[in-house]
Amino acid sequence: MELTGKLVAVMPLQTGISITGNVWEKQDFIIETSGQFPKKIYLVSFGKKNVSIESVTIGTELTVSIEVESKEYNGKWFTTCKCLNFTFNTESILAADAETPIEQPEQEETFYKAPLPF
């Protein structure tokens, strides 16, 4: 299944060591779909794809291949959306750069400092 949307947030990278002694990496991120009723979708990415998602800027349009899986634990069901692969639209990156406002130098504001009443 494929989804297309803008990258909204990238969560901190999580790492650990499995029971077999292998190092694992997990990166979570959120995309927002477009349309009349946009939805935010929380995705989980395992492995080397994490380095790539960290380099993508917020607001970039992504096409994500996902796998949706539900598991039962103690009578409750939990659903996970796993990111299998993603590509990003280079046109959206160029458009985001063009829309970036030019930073103006900050001007100092002067305030009247009255003595405190206490």
Strand and helix layout:
Elements: E1 2-10, E2 14-17, E3 23-33, E4 40-46, H1 49-55, E5 61-73, E6 76-88, H2 90-99
Antiparallel strand pairs: 1-3, 1-5, 2-3, 3-4, 5-6
Question: What would the keywords be for this entry?
Answer:
118 residues, 6-stranded antiparallel sheet, mainly beta, OB fold (Dihydrolipoamide Acetyltransferase, E2P), 2 helices
- Whole-angstrom Rg: 21 Å
The CATH topology: OB fold (Dihydrolipoamide Acetyltransferase, E2P)
Task: Estimate percent helicity.
Answer: 10-25%
Number of domains: 1
Low-confidence stretches: none
Description:
There is one protein chain. With 118 residues, the chain is mainly beta. It has one domain: OB fold (Dihydrolipoamide Acetyltransferase, E2P) (Beta Barrel). Strands 1, 2, 3, 4, 5 and 6 form a six-stranded antiparallel β-sheet that branches. A hairpin with a 2-residue loop joins strand 5 and strand 6. The longest helix is centred in the last third of the chain and has 10 residues. It is globular, with a radius of gyration of 21 Å. The N and C termini lie far apart (66 Å).
